[in-house]
Amino acid sequence: MASSWRRTFGNMRSFVSNSMGGLRGGSNLASWVVAGTLAYFLWIKPSQDLKREQQEKAALAAAESDPYRYVETRKPIPDPQVTGLIYGNKNKDKPTKPED
């Protein structure tokens, strides 16, 4: 009975090994890395990019078609500190004349 499961396990292991092309060790790992990289750049990444572009287009179309969207109609109020109204010199652009 013990040899039965060992034989079954050995058959399964040889089947898996043969299905991977019969490669073992580092060459097997390297071939899987190359195959995975190619699959990613040829199938997975383009489909993700296409899906992302479709979502962006759908979001833009939904935003443009919304008649109740918010539109800014007023100019923003300038910051008084930046414009020199607070703690600033009103005549900062004009050069000062030295007094004698």
TrEMBL record:
The keyword Transmembrane helix applies. Keywords: Membrane, Transmembrane, Transmembrane helix. Residues 90-100 have a biased composition (Basic and acidic residues). Residues 73-100 are annotated as: Disordered. The chain crosses the membrane at residues 21-43. This is Uncharacterized protein. It comes from Glycine max (Soybean). The gene is LOC100527639.
